[in-house]
Amino acid sequence: MHLQSLLMNKNNLIFGLIILIAFFLRFWQLDQVPSGAHADEADTAYSAYSILKTGLTQYGTFNPLAFTEFNGGTHPPLYTYFLIPFVKFFGLNIFVERMPSAVFGTLTIPIFYFLLKKILQSSAAALVGSFFLTVNPWFLHMSRQGLLESIAVFFVVLGITLFVYAKEKKYLYILSFIAFGLSLHAYDAPKIFVPLFLIALIIYQYKSIIRIKKYFIATFVVFVIFYLLMLKTIFLDGQINDYNKVSLFNTLSLENAVNYERQYTRAPLWLSGIFHNKATVLLKQLETSYFNIFSINWLFINGEGNLQQAVVRHGQFHLFELPLFFVGAYALFRKRRNTGLLLMIWLLLAPIPGALTQGNYPYRSVLLLPAPIIFSSYGLVWLWSYLEKLKQKIIKRLIRIFIILLIIGYTSSFIFTYFFDYPVYASKWWFKERNEALNYAISLQDKYDRIFIDGDIEWAVMYAFNGKVSPHIFQNSYKNKSKYKNEDVISIGKFTFGSFKSRQISSPSAYFPKNSIVLTDESNFSEEKGMKIFTAADPLDRVYKIFEIK
Questions:
Q1: Which of 330, 333, 361, 495 fits 340 for a cystine, CB–CB 3.0-4.6 Å?
Q2: How does DSSP assign 251-293, residue by residue?
Q3: What is this structure's pTM?
Q4: Residue 113: inside a domain
């Protein structure tokens, strides 16, 4: 009994330490890493600020299930709702904007621990898995940006965890369906993944569910209500138009691909039509898009090439997890076949949302993230116990030391890259220089009569976020767009946002009024020497400039 108590205390200590590490990695320098504030983050934050102050978004609209974006589309509302109290109590800034993502990213770790403890029946594997998730490059990055993915992962993992625990406590089914239902309004990926994976979960626990069939069906209605509300936003509120823009099923994109294939062939038209048509093109694109997600290079070595979505110098997972994944899959299918099948289904279903769209694999395929970690964590525990069978103690110790050093090496290398290198080489992807330029322009507003920004509504939203502009003023400016020299512009106080290009304006001094400044790309109006230049990591990489009209 004393030994068991010591083991429990040891596990609790390790578990607590993992949570502290998770918290630290997600909150340390949250306003600096990633550097800057992305336009999507500014849009989401200012939307929460506007709803808090006026009851409407900055665009003068309010649909409780779909919020308008600056590009004319919509996004699920849950992140914004969670953000509103943070903005109310802590103010409007990038640290606060990212706080819900960091909070839910941290909370996912203990939920994940209890999920693994249940389905793997191993506290050791649960501890390893929660640590792997804590330091996972993909999940850490998602948990530190003020976008939608982190809370979607939280509610999906919470829903699965509650579902498997409901085998013993049936009242948890209703909480599970609420969690799954909320995930549908957190991000787009769960809309496809959750209904499909629910089928697998029901089969996984079929024997226990059949005994409480009526109760289960009654609680399932909760999820159906959430799903019907989701369908309303897609088909009645216009979200289907957003999907069509990025879908592989986009008719115009398919037609262009078919025409291209038919142009470069020696076959007669009738024969080309058999092998070059929308169906064959779509099938090829779906195959490519789906299996690209399982690329070893993408998952474990270099990761996604988009520096906003990933760190690039590291994979989405650590390379040491790859062999552990196969070890874990082998061990799990031997000892807990049904659990292995469930996780394999998870692994195969999660990439579908990303495969059906063009690009953005780290975002739309984010629900893939937990499954490989479960296999890898089980693989490490199985391998560790297998080493006990070795008679040569020195070999056993050397192998274990090697494994520990490998894990420390990869995780510390990523953490160093992420916190010290990534903010520098990815600064342009996170609009660091744009935010600096806008804030500098804001600091000069008392000295000049007019400030012209060579940028569209995206710039206007970023200005409103950085300048904490009254939502009433922004809503009025957005609704009542004005003109400057026959150009459509958005005017907010002294600031005017529009397209001001040197190819259209031969003389800036004649076009812009005196005692004004212009913020534009460094290459625009090349004859104008900037009073302030904003550079990226390389001092020669001049991104923006501000010049004066005297």
A1: 333
A2: HHHHHHHHHHHHHS-SS-HHHHHHHSSHHHHHHHHHHHHHHHT
A3: 0.95
A4: yes
